[in-house]
């Protein structure tokens, strides 16, 4: 086990000597490859983005209020139960809905929007269908959904874009282009700018976060219902994105809901109790929240969100132009991720003070998350920083482990640096004393150590001793100890000696460059010695070498001082 530990320590130390700080560059290149691969193939970063978005938008401090003019007439479970006694289970005869529409129309609403697909005739109630068709024919502000089917079925459809009244198209649009869709069965709904899609397209994880406002195909533009309603109400919609990231107003049932059965029963009563202007100047959406009608979707706000309220949210966003904006796509994700990873790389490569960098890195990542959270609260913009932050944290974690492991390996090598087949290790110690009236402190000494490490070319160990210790240890003052270790026969021996001489020549200019306070005095010495491979005496031999180096340093200093003070 001891041999294994020694071999591992030797391998880490050797690896560090070979790679030095280049390891951080190689690691950054590896992470860059992973980022590019993920953006093109795996899309893990996209999933991070979506989950972070869900968490932020769900826990916002400031949510926009729902538009009070939007009212949902809800075909809920209570309505299904109440209406079943007279009309049976859903679907009810169309006359029921027609009578409700007539009553609402008398109150002069701004719009009546159906979130119900009237796809087929009611063969058992043709008179009911005829009545409903007459009602919606007379209704100039009724809007109907057109359910867009999968594009793979377009070639099998007989429905053409040219058949849809008022559909926008380019001059070279294919007039024979067919598309798969379920339009309203009733001709009274086929009016210009009154039929639009109400499709909800979830993201790859099955969660609805955005709303398709336009479908483009072969020169034709098929608009969504919210866009048609906003245009009819003369709102500016030209800048509305094709895929709108929804700015949710809250959890389910945030909008004003009224029960279909209650409104219908009251409207047909001889003595109505509801206000006669309940729907005046309102935008009325007729839809369902009953689970039995299968219009419940998972969204960023809740796993069970009514489809009719998704439509209401999209309409609300369109009218107020407060839909969420986001810097999305592969390019922003790649650029932000690479930027954070390589900034972290440079900090490790240039040996930025670790304590300070740890604080800066942690603070910056938290700050980016806070910035993203504030942006979605105050300016309706989602800054997609989750995945880049995760990449930066992952890089930081690996680099930190390497830095700590290699430091430990070098320290271990410093004390137990002999391989099992080595008899002797030769060591060159260079103690550097920096004397000032006041101690320089830990931060300044770390700067000194960093400059010395940059000045050295040959692999070495650089340690600092700050003169803030209590008692006798404070007498050591501020010191830097540079050490080179090698086998006596190693070619590295000459390189270490040259490195020490060059460092000695550069020390004065190095301190001047730092501009240290109080103009400290600089002293250094060099001591060479051997360590014999005896496991039980290695630490003692290192302490002896250090003591000998310090004694030589102080002897030289005292000898020089005595010569200066001796009278002629």
UniProtKB/TrEMBL annotation:
This is CHASE2 domain-containing protein. It comes from the Bacteria. Residues 45-348 form the CHASE2 domain. The chain crosses the membrane at residues 23-45, 331-350, 357-379, 385-405. InterPro entries: CHASE2. The keyword rRNA processing does not apply. Keywords: Membrane, Transmembrane, Transmembrane helix.
């Amino acid at each position: 086990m001891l041999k294994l530990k020694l071999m591992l320590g030797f391998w880490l130390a050797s690896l560090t000597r070979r790679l030095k700080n280049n390891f951080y560059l190689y690691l950054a290149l590896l992470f860059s490859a992973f980022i590019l691969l993920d953006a093109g193939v795996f899309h893990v970063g996209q999933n991070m983005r979506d989950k972070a978005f869900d968490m932020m938008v769900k826990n916002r401090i400031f949510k926009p209020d729902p538009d009070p003019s939007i009212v949902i007439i809800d075909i809920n479970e209570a309505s299904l139960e109440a209406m079943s006694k007279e009309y049976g289970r859903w679907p009810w005869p169309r006359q029921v809905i027609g009578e409700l529409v007539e009553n609402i129309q008398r109150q002069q609403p701004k719009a009546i929007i159906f979130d119900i697909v009237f796809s087929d005739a009611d063969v058992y109630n043709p008179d009911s269908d005829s009545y409903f068709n007459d009602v919606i024919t007379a209704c100039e502000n009724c809007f109907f959904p057109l359910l867009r089917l999968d594009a793979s079925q377009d070639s099998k459809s007989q429905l053409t874009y040219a058949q849809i009244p008022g559909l926008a198209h380019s001059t070279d649009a294919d007039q024979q282009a067919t598309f798969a869709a379920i339009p309203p069965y009733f001709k009274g709904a086929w009016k210009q700018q009154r039929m639009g899609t109400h499709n909800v397209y979830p993201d790859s994880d099955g969660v609805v976060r955005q709303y398709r406002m336009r479908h483009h195909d072969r020169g034709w533009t098929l608009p969504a219902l919210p866009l048609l309603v906003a245009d009819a109400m003369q709102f500016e919609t030209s800048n509305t994105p094709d895929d709108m990231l929804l700015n949710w107003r809250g959890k389910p049932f945030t909008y004003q809901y009224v029960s279909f059965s209650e409104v219908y029963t009251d409207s047909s009563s001889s003595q109505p109790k509801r206000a006669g202007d309940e729907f005046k100047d309102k935008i009325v959406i007729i839809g369902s929240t009953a689970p039995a009608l299968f219009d419940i979707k998972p969204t960023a706000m809740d796993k069970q969100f009514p489809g009719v309220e998704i439509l209401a949210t999209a309409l609300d966003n369109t009218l107020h132009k407060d839909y969420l904006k986001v810097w999305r796509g592969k390019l922003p994700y790649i650029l932000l991720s690479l930027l954070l990873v390589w900034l972290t790389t440079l900090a490790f490569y240039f040996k930025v003070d670790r304590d300070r960098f740890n604080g800066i890195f942690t603070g910056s990542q938290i700050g980016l998350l806070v910035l993203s959270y504030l942006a979605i609260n105050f300016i309706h913009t989602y800054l997609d920083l989750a995945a880049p932050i995760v990449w930066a944290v992952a890089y930081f974690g690996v680099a930190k482990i390497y830095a700590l492991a290699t430091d430990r390996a070098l320290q271990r090598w410093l004390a137990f640096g002999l391989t099992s087949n080595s008899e002797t290790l030769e060591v060159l110690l260079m103690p550097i004393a920096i004397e000032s009236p006041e101690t320089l402190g830990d931060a300044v000494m770390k700067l000194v150590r960093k400059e010395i490490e940059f000045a050295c070319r040959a692999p070495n160990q650089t340690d600092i001793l700050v003169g803030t210790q209590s008692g006798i240890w404070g007498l050591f003052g501020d010191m830097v100890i540079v050490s080179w270790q090698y086998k006596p026969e190693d070619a590295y021996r000459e390189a270490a000696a040259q490195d020490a001489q060059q460092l000695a020549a550069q020390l004065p200019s190095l301190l001047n460059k730092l501009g240290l306070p109080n103009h400290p005095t600089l002293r250094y010495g060099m001591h060479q010695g051997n360590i014999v491979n005896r496991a039980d005496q290695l630490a003692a031999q290192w302490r002896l070498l250090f003591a000998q180096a310090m004694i030589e340093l102080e002897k030289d200093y005292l000898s020089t001082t005595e010569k200066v003070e001796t009278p002629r």
